[in-house]
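Put briefly, the fold is written as integer tokens. One such record reads:
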Amino acid sequence: MSDRAALAAFLRARREALQPDDVGLLRGRRRRTGGLRREEVAALSDMSADYYGRLEQPRGPQPSEQMLASLARGLRLSLDERDLLFRLGGHAAPGRVRRGDHINPGMMRVLDRLEDTPAQVVNHLGETLKQTRPAKALLGDETAYTGLARSAHYRWFTDPAARLIHPASDHADQSRLMVADLHGARARDGGDSRAAALVEALTGESPEFAAIWRERPVLGPQCASKRFCHPRIGTLELHCQTLIDPDQSQRLVVYTATPGTESHTGLQLLSLLPDLPHAPSPGHAG
């Protein structure tokens, strides 16, 4: 059972300890008190302000593990703070062995300062955990998938629509990169892991994956440019710079373009697009 009073007090204390600058928000002249507002924490945690408000009052239903994980990211909690949040919410603390779903607060602070840049945090299975708005405009909302489809590796080999983001002439190289990346994750995590289950599923569903997997490709340092096909801007040649958090098995991927090029101009236009160009369809999000 959750301890609603203790949970409410903990959420309130963490919210009041955060400053707008900590999460990439402007302070504004009308802000009279320190800390974040409830609606700001709700937005950072991808939930309604009403739902979050009920947690702090305290009233409302017991929060799910998914909601608690969202709160942990929104409040920039450390792993120890996240574990306490789960216990107060009536759930066991998540395992820490390469779970890869909680973003290190330091990495979140870096991501907060990339608001005008396509950037996202991805775990070792290719699951996108957090995106900036320009990243969603470039790639679609990659956080909306569930099940095996959360992994970009899985989608690449099972959903033809996932390949539309790259030119057809680049697909073979991208396939090898995907397999090599998953090969490294499988080797590190062992046979009784989510990585191994993902490999098993792909081996059974994709002959292409199975053929490349038998070659056991190894992924080296990757800083080469990639071409992206955007439905409204056209082809963009982008560099993918990566910041790695080895403890959390996550990467912060930042997409940049050479100044003065058409791709650089196109990248700047992403932040001006009013709607997402290609969010995942319901048929591929489960």
Notes: The radius of gyration is 20 Å. The CA atoms of residues 25 and 112 lie 8 Å apart. The domain at 4-88 is CATH 1.10.260.40 (434 Repressor (Amino-terminal Domain)). The beta strands are 119-123, 128-131, 225-230, 234-245, 250-256.
